[in-house]
Write a structure and sequence with these properties.
By secondary structure, this protein is an all-alpha fold. It has 4 helices and no strands. The mean pLDDT is 89.
Length: 77
């Protein structure tokens, strides 16, 4: 979702690292930057993305994601 919103490859700065090092960083909380959210729509997308990155107990469910996306798209009409 981050790649679709920002139009960039996620984790590009980590390219070339071995998989184990990559996973350690991601499991430790490293995520792509979500700065630049200046409109209500972009803030809502950023919140949705952050919710998908949360730890398992707090992570958005598929139903949560569907509801959020539906609401964002409906507000753009």
């Amino acid at each position: 979702m981050w790649e679709m919103w920002y139009g960039e490859v996620a984790f590009l700065e980590m390219k070339g690292q071995d998989l184990e090092a990559f996973l350690v960083k991601v499991e430790g909380g490293h995520r792509p930057d979500l700065t630049g959210a200046t409109t209500q729509t972009s803030i809502r997308w950023s919140e949705l993305i952050s919710g998908c990155w949360a730890n398992a107990a707090q992570r958005n469910t598929l139903a949560d994601c569907k509801s959020a996306i539906t609401a964002i798209l409906a507000d753009q009409k």
